[in-house]
Each structure stands twice: as C-alpha cells, then as structure tokens.
Amino acid sequence: MDTRAFKRSLHHSDRYNRRGFGLGDEVAGSLQTAYQSDLVASLRTNGYELRRGRLTVRLAEAFGFCWGVERAVAMAYETRRHYPSERIWITNEIIHNPSVNDHLRTMNVQFIPVEGGVKDFSEVEGGDVVILPAFGATVQEMQLLNERGCHIVDTTCPWVSKVWNTVEKHKKQAFTSIIHGKVKHEETLATSSFAGTYLVVLDLAEAQLVSDYILGKGSRESFMARFASACSPGFDPDRDLVRVGVANQTTMLKSETEDIGKLFERTMLQRYGPAELNDHFLAFNTICDATQERQDAMFALVDEPLDLMVVIGGYNSSNTTHLQEIAVSRGIRSFHIDTPERIGPGNRITHKPLGSDRELEEPFLPAGTIRVGITSGASTPDRIVEAVIERLIELSED
Ligand code: SF4
Predict the structure, then answer these.
(1) Residue 1 has what pLDDT?
(2) Residues of the chain under the 70 pLDDT cut
(3) Is the beta carbon of 62 within 6 A of some atom in ligand 1?
(4) Rounded to two decimals, what is the model's pTM?
(5) Which residues of 362-380 are buried (b: 16+ CB within 10 A; e: fewer)?
(6) Domains of the chain
(7) Ligand 1 neighbour 251 (Cβ under 6 A)
(8) Between the CA of residue 388 and those of 3, 65, 170, 236, what are the distances in Å?
(9) Which of 82, 155, 198, 310 stands 20 to 30 A from 284 (CA)?
(10) pLDDT given at position 49
(11) How far is the centre of ligand 1, averaged over its atoms, from the C-alpha of 80 (Å)?
C-alpha cells in the first residue's frame, strides 16, 4: 500500500486519534501548574523586561512553547485521562524537553527505548496506547503499530503534516525532494519516509555541492561519498537531480531554507532555461510560523546592547540550536542550557557550545550592571524560563 493510501485507511480506523479527546478543560489545571509561570506572564505584559538591582533581563518577544507543542502536550495529558489504566507509550519523546518528558514519566507514560538510533518496539503489545510526538513518526512505525493492534494518538503538528503533503506531491509528480534538515532528526526521518526519491542537505554549503553537481561540476564518486547516508535507496544523482522540489525540517534556520530554495531555483534556471523551469523546480512554502517568529524575535533582540544571552532548550532541540547560532553569529557571549540547574552553584554555568560537548564557564556573570537577553526554544515551558530568571537574580545579588 502506498503512503497516501495507508494514511487514508489509518485516518478511518477507530484505533487512531489525531484530534484529542475533548478533555481540554479537565487537563488545563495540570498543564497550568506544570508549565506556566506568573513571572513570565508579567514580563510579557511589561515590555518583556525585568530589572532587579544591577541585573536587567530582556526576554525575546517570541519564545518558548509554540502552538504545535502546546497541542501535543495537552493531547498527551488527555490521553492519560482517556485511558486511565492502559499502558501508554511515546515514540520516543513528546517534544525535545527533558522536564516535559519527566512530567509524563510521573504519569506512568513510558518511552520506547532507542538502541543505536533504532527504536525498540518489542515490548509494545496490541491494545497498548502509543502517542506519536509533535515532530511525527515514520510511516513504517505507524504501519508497525497499526498491524500490532495499538491505539495510536497522533500529535504530529499540522505544520509537519504540511511538509509531508509537500513531499508526497513531489513524489506524485516524479520530483526529487531536497529536504533541508538534519538527517537523523526524527522529523526529517519521518518526512523522508513519506517522500519518494529524496536527498537531505544540512545547510547551504551542502546545497551548493548539489547545485554544482547539477551544473556539471564535481565527480559522481565524491558526491555519493558525501550523501550516501542522506538519500533514498538507489539514489542516482544523474537521474534524480533533473526535477527537484525543496522541503524542510520545520525548525531549521528560516533564512537558510529560503536561500536553499532560491539556490535551486537559480540552478535549474541556469541549467534548463526559463521556459523549462516549471518542469524542473517546484516552489515550496513549508516554514513553520512559530519557528519564523522566534527567529525574527531573536534577530531583533541581538540588535540590542546585551552583555550576554542565555538560550534555553533541550540539547537535541533543533530550533533552540538555531537560536543559539543567531547569537553566536553576532559575537554575543551566549550560553545554551537545557535546565535551570546548569546555573550555579556559585557564579558558574555549565552550557553547551555549538557543535561541542558541555563545558563549565566561571565566572559567568560579569561585575557591574548587566543586561542579559533570554530566549527559549519551542519545546521549553515558561516555568523553566522563570526558574532560569530566578537563578540569575540570585546570582546577581550574591
Ligand atoms: S515548531 Fe512549528 S512545526 Fe514544530 S511543533 Fe511548533 S508549530 Fe509545529
């Protein structure tokens, strides 16, 4: 069965739910207690700024939980209510945030184990409930769970589904999907599983290599050596780069995705001429609004005078990493942390620089008046942002 037909049949199954259970009011209190923050709410209504002694905190004007994440987390809470005694699993994190995943563990929601990057579904049985996360699951995983007789609660963000529809359109029209994303990220794995022929490019530099190949530069051997693990089985660059459409992981750097789209449009124009362009390039629009807003707010924030930035979010969160990249590209001292506990004890911070392991920085806060910019990724609850601000206040008072 092809992926579209499978999706259609799944959507009609009474063991599949993608709309929640109408229990929003029942779970609202638990969500409020676990994730929301009065302090952050008051900053939102007071110009996103807070002053305490020598410290000024400046929040980005768009940050934290996005609509798709709020929806996924609420659906997970509703699922526990709706199935009070069934075994519930998540494949394999609801979102990329350790505190949210820990909350779900305390509600006796189990996580599908991952060994060497491969999910182990061996313990999942018919009748179990399996929640698919906001960034989706592969079509093969959905087929496996469906065949096993599981109840599937699909929290995939509609923005991600939109990308899947885009690559399915490419497939139907015999275009190769060039996916701007991280080849091992769950969302990109899922998107690839819905595509026909595909090639994943990490950034503009990789896209340029592909463009060069289309224009006759570079050898087939070195091309395949570079992209062997980032393309569909049997990919042939001479056959499969003649008609291309671009799609993206929704949390990539928006400006880079746009540049990659323009690059391929120019490349096909150069290779085939304007009259033939529509037969060789499909335009796209799969950038998620929330990612765009958070990145735009970050660009505005880093234009202000800041002594340092704290970027909060899971270390495996792609959208958080891109916020950190924006700060680093402006030469700002910026610290990516996943939990408030990374700050202290004393005037120190344990943070993750781009592309390397965690390291300790001491002293963290400089002497004198300080202006600290703060933002957080789409998977980070306000409660975590509040705890970081409280630690900064304590440290600045020491
Ligand atoms: S970042 Fe965008 S695509 Fe991802 S869950 Fe949030 S709204 Fe959806």
Answers:
(1) 64
(2) 1
(3) no
(4) 0.89
(5) eebbeeeebbbbbbbbbbb
(6) 36-65+289-397 (3.40.1010.20), 68-156 (3.40.50.11270), 159-282 (3.40.1010.20)
(7) yes
(8) 44, 16, 44, 49
(9) 155
(10) 97
(11) 23
